[in-house]
Amino acid sequence: NHIGLSNNITVVKKRNYHSVQRDTVVCKKEVLLSAQKSDGIAYQWQDGSTGKDFTAHHSGTFWVHYRNSDLECVDYTDTFHLVMLNEIRFYSGTDLQALCKADTFLLQAKVRNAEHYVWEDQIPGKDKVVRHPGLYWVNYRIDSLCAVYSDTFKVHYPAKDPLLSFEVDSLLCLGDTLAFQNTSDEVFNRFHWRFGDRVETDLKSPDHCYTNTGSYDVKLIGWIDEKCADSLIRQIAVDSIFQVRFTKDKVAICKGEPVQFFPGTDDHIISLYWRYGDGIALHTTDKYATQHAFDQAGVFPVMLKASHRVCPETFYIDTVVVRALPVIYLGPDSVLCWRGEPILLQNQAALPEGPYRYLWSTGATTASIQVLQEGSYWLHITADTLGCSNTESVTIVKGCHINIPNAFTPNGDGINDYFFPRQYLSGQVQTFKLQIFNRWGQQVFETRNLDGRGWDGSCKGTLQPSGIYVYVMEVTTGNGIREQYKDNVTLIR
Fold first, then answer.
1. How many CB atoms lie within 10 A of CB 481?
2. Would the CA dihedral through 405, 406, 410, 412 be positive or negative?
């Protein structure tokens, strides 16, 4: 670390003063400078220090002034121009802009023949791969020049990711065409679609039609100048057109009886609408069985409408036959006269053709019965074809002096062919009058004959139709009591 004349220090001596000057380049942290003459006196350096030697710690111009010791009175000045290369640093900066946040960069030092590379994270090596934005640098040295270099890299990433996006309906019905609207940022300049059914395209905003139902993963890939790529996947569901149907537990029912309906549905149905054909409707999201009772007889069209989540509505119609209950009419409550003729009870209402089963409160299974006792009597009729049944009752009481039937059958069979108040107490009846009126109030028959046959169901030789007629009868008994009876009588043909 000592530099003297023998160490390539050039001393330029002015005439008569022996001045010395020399430029020196060193690769040291400090340098010892010495005067050219070691036997001089009164050494003084530029900073005022004395002595033949001076230690320099930095680059610069240094000098020393002294005299010759041989009394020649010659002044000497040695000048040193010193350059320390260990203080020289070379810097270079590079800004790197990424296209997308997925980009990576390979950072490399500028000087290829340098050595001793050390990065800011103290990892050695000439190259470094970075995946994040920030400031990076590497230090390296060229030993032959004692130079230290630093390369600085500033990596910029976008403020936000370039957005790859598209709009499309996530549900569609089989057979419909699906439009894909590409809404990606304009930095994307190339696209590729994969529709999930082995069909692909490079169109920016394509249309596509699926040929099978199911779920499909649609993938869009976008490129930015072939340097950056991004992808997006969305799921598409394709529904089938499901034709809704239903079954029922009965084809025909009796009036008032419920029938159950069982809908056949799939997972894509969101609601059902029932219309039973009798003015009653039901809207429900329940896909289970429902039931309905009809209070009228007839043939009713039952409609089921299914609303799907994306496909059009579908309909199904089937009919339900509702049978009427047997109509039973036993006539009005009647009075059974003491020792009078029995009252004939039978269904006075007309029934459609068909087999019927009869059951009376007395246990009889015939179509009619004769009643000799007062009480309440009921008739239960069942239609064998479907089992529809109905019940009707009538009350019979005793209390009159004559026997008045409530129905007759003028069919010439010798049984109940005439309507007449037969009685066993005829000896006690003094006067008698019987009048018959039709439903319009017109008189069709009159008699005062106690021994007559009565009304044969005709008027002036014309047979009267089946139906209900009103009779009015006036009787005077032997004790002078006058009685009047007014009621209905049914003509049955």
1. 11
2. negative
- What is the DSSP-derived secondary structure letter of residue 424? S
- Cα separation of the two ends of the chain: 155
Residue partners of 141: CB distance under 8 A and separation at least 6: 114, 115, 116, 147, 148, 149
pLDDT for 66 equals 86
Residue 423 has pLDDT above 90, yes or no: no
The C-alpha atoms of residue 419 and residue 471 are separated, in whole angstroms, by 10
pLDDT tens digits along 140-154: 877 666 667 788 988
SS3 268: coil
Q: DSSP character for 385? A: T
Does residue 427 sit in helix, strand or coil?
helix
CA distance 414 to 98: 120
Of 51-55, 343-347, 421-425, the range with the lowest mean pLDDT is 421-425
**Helix, strand or coil, per DSSP, at residue 83:** strand
3-class secondary structure, 119 = strand
Q: Which residues touch 442 (CB under 8 Å, ≥6 apart)?
A: none
* Nearest residue to 428 via CA among 475, 485, 372, 474: 475
Distance CA 18, CA 37 (A): 10
CA distances (Å), origin 91, targets 140, 141, 283: 11, 12, 81
Distances (CA, A) of 4 to 1, 52, 133, 251, 259: 10, 10, 53, 130, 126
465: number of Cβ within 10 Å: 9
Q: Which residue has the higher pLDDT, 417 or 30?
A: 417
Query: Rounded mean pLDDT of 247-252?
Result: 91
Bridge partners for 148 per DSSP: 89, 141
At residue 478 the predicted structure's pLDDT band, cuts being 50, 70 and 90, is low
User: pTM for this structure?
Assistant: 0.48
Q: Which residue has the tokens 């799907």?
A: 308
**Letter string b/e over residues 26-36, b meaning 16 or more CB atoms within 10 A of that residue's CB:** beeeebebbbb
With a cut of 50, say whether residue 356 has pLDDT above it: yes
CA distance 8 to 20: 12
Residue 204: which of 185, 217, 225, 177 has the closest Cα? 185
Q: Which two tokens stand for residue 448?
A: 């005062």
Closest CA to 314 of 359, 354, 266, 353: 266
